[in-house]
Write a structure and sequence with these properties.
Two copies of one chain form a homodimer.
Chain A: E1 20-31, E2 36-37, E3 40-41, E4 45-55, E5 59-66, H1 69-82, H2 90-100, H3 121-141, H4 145-148, E6 156-158, E7 161-164, H5 184-198, E8 203-206, H6 212-225, E9 231-234, H7 241-251, E10 257-259, H8 265-274, E11 279-281, H9 291-297, E12 302-305, H10 313-325, E13 329-332, H11 339-351, E14 380-381, E15 384-386, H12 399-412, H13 419-426
Parallel strand pairs in A: 7-8, 8-9, 9-10, 10-11, 11-12, 12-13
Antiparallel strand pairs in A: 1-4, 2-3, 4-5, 6-15, 14-15
Helix pairs in contact in A: 1-2, 2-3, 5-6, 6-7, 7-8
Chain lengths: ~425, ~425
């Protein structure tokens, strides 16, 4: 059957309810501590793009996504093509975004510092527009986004405490409030601080930084200190199959799941068949194209969804439905983010009955004053965030804060996330290597 | 994470927008011609249940589903449990319906005369409530249901002309307007009448009635008469693998797809691997549980979706997303239905970009005056129906017509669809047999 011509709505189709009148894409930067990972270390500033979609009637919707310059250019291009599209017709919004990328070779703009490079270009660009359009719909209709996603099934969303190996501070700067964590004792101390402040009831350790046995020892130290606490480790795919199986056996009695021990579907499938531990991923199943081969190979048990690369909240619902249908469990992945993304993650998790684990968030690593939304709505208490019930995402843009964080973007000089180059500027001998161990 | 208690919304959750205040389930009957199929012949009346969901503020939503008595009892039970549930929280509506079926052994109520008996009990009962709640949402928000399903991608939906072998009339009654069709010439004549009246641009023949070669000859006669017209045949799974492969080879140059040649996933997979023709199904993939094994076996190419047994429109969207992800094509199945179901099918197809074929409908076999909706909205012209753009489903209940068709239900004495017993009352030698050839 024929679809709409790209030129506009066909005669006879419903008149657009909220045609998009303008799209603003504002790059911002916010301070980020020196968190270590398999590809290097977080730079002093994390980048994000704030997407503001204006629709007729003076309503606007908010989206947030990666701030890499290649991604910004794509957002600008897609935004131009969206003018006139109905914010209520998400199918058409998706078609326009796809159209804007027809001649795009897909280079760069992944926003993950090289850790995840196989996400869908279209879904990555679509995401912030999908979120912003749902925000508009919710505001126009007077319902929270969770309702547009099928209805809230919980009134609060659990998050895990996300532990990182880290330096005391960025080289040349004062130590930050979190201090150094470079061994099991440092990680345990960090966990105590996290839990004291936010009440987390699950913990995740970003691994892939030190030799696997040292990281396993950190997990075992957490287990000893916090009996019964669900624990996870994520070496970001830098272990060999052999190492992953050895670590898997060692950590079987301790872990809730093992996240991305290896990089490929085939390698994780080999690990999975050898250990008695669920394997989670946000690296080898990162687009709808990855689902058929991963399911066929029985490679993973848990998909860490991330609306930033799964095409937004609408398509993340589809992912959740596929997970339920194919007996995959669901949790949620996080990159460094601000409050718009946090609100979107929370609305999605609120409406997704099969989110089976506490979700990841980098929220505690951000300074409270570094945000583009008015404060007070999103607070982690007892390890959970109450789901906003105001119309749309439930958060409001703070124009002054947006201007401040945009100035910070201009001042910091960063144009894309590059943990590796930053690490090499401090430790020239650092080499990118996967698998590393 | 914890979900809502079944007792109601938790403190802090958004106040229900449109709490359900009452549910009416009204069985109706409408005249049906003696259409032949693999399990017997259509009885003089087809049964349906009209589901009217009332919500606060005086708004109501419409659903339509099977009228078998076992199904009616389940609808009544689910309806009672839905009182107080927010018509905007489809997740909670689904949870309540599931709860109403906890102690249900699942016997009977399939509504398909024994042709499809493995659909999901929950999804079958949920469907009409999902549709009715979307109708409510659309009316409250002032948007058509297609918008709630992601936005219309077309302004008209194509349907196929659904040809049946049939007697001239029910035994003891006057011949109906369509006349007899018991051989290729009769089918070609029927096709001419269908196309003259409705302008169909694709044709489907319900087979499984006569020896396969005779039915193949009817398809070949259609091909000769209507060059270029997409053609399908559906023997409802009564062919052996051997027969299906033989017929498949014979009809390879002629068919658009071959529908349910055999009954099981394994048998259809065996046929599929031997012929060069897409296989479609609404018999071996009829619930989300069937998708993983069917995909693993590469059993079918096309899933004929049917919101009446796939859990309504919301879950049919999920089916469409799964189809796209796993490279299955999508079309739409039909049982004898009235205008509420037709409107729901049209709203769904309007919002589903990957409906790849003209959808099935029994609409032409119903007398125009036999309906529960006000006439004039849904008309097949040039083989397509314009998508209603009024709020909700876009159709209105005709209370007088509802009362008339309910009286017809009471008067006709039928309590469930049973094509087999009716056939045996006329031809006592008729035996249910699958495979038959």
């Amino acid at each position: 059957m024929s679809e709409h011509s790209s030129a506009g709505l066909l005669p006879g189709t419903n008149a657009p309810r909220s045609p998009i009148t303008a799209v603003q894409v504002v790059p911002v930067a916010f301070a980020d501590p020196p968190l270590l990972n398999s590809v290097g270390v977080h730079e002093p500033f994390a980048l994000r793009a704030i997407v503001i979609v204006h629709a007729s009637g003076g309503v606007h919707g908010l989206g947030e996504t990666y701030g890499d310059s290649a991604h910004l250019a794509r957002l600008e291009r897609a935004g131009k093509l969206l003018i006139g599209t109905d914010a209520f017709n998400l199918n058409q919004v998706a078609a326009r975004v796809e159209q804007s990328l027809v001649d795009d070779a897909g280079t760069g703009g992944h926003g993950t510092g090289g850790m995840v490079t196989t996400t869908s270009l279209t879904d990555r660009v679509l995401s912030a527009f999908d979120v912003a359009c749902l925000d508009i719909q919710g505001k126009v209709l007077g319902v929270p986004v969770s309702t547009l996603l099928g209805g809230a099934v919980r009134d609060a969303v659990d998050f895990s405490g996300y532990l990182f190996y880290k330096w005391a501070g960025h080289p040349g700067a004062e130590p930050d409030a979190w201090g150094e964590a470079l061994d099991p004792a440092g990680i345990v101390a960090q966990a105590h601080r996290m839990i004291d402040r936010y009440g987390f009831t699950a913990l995740k350790l970003k691994g892939g930084v030190f030799v696997p046995d040292q990281e396993a020892a950190a997990i075992e130290a957490l287990r000893a200190e916090f009996p019964g606490m669900p624990l996870r480790i994520d070496p970001n795919g830098v272990w060999t199959v052999e190492t992953a199986i050895r670590m898997g056996h060692r950590l079987e009695p301790v872990l809730e799941y093992l996240e991305d021990p290896c990089l490929s579907i085939a390698d994780n499938a080999a690990v999975r068949s050898a250990i008695n531990l669920p394997i989670a991923t946000n690296m080898c199943v990162v687009s709808f194209n990855d689902l058929p081969p991963a399911i066929e190979a029985h490679a993973v048990d848990v998909v860490l969804s991330d609306h930033h690369f799964w095409g937004g909240l609408s398509r993340s619902r589809l992912l959740a439905g596929i997970a339920r249908t194919f007996d995959l469990r669901l949790s949620m992945h996080s990159n460094s983010h601000l409050g718009i993304s946090f609100a979107a993650m929370i609305q999605l998790a609120a409406a997704t009955s099969n989110i089976d684990y506490a979700c990841d968030t980098h929220w505690p690593w951000k300074r409270a004053e570094d945000d583009v939304i008015r404060p007070g709505v999103l607070e982690i208490r007892d390890g959970a965030v109450k789901v906003p019930t105001a119309p749309g995402l439930g958060v409001e843009l703070d124009e002054q804060a947006l201007a401040r964080l945009h100035q910070q973007y201009l001042d910091c000089g960063l144009k894309k996330r590059d943990d590796t180059s930053y690490m090499q500027s401090i430790h020239p001998e650092f080499e990118l290597k996967s698998p590393r161990w």
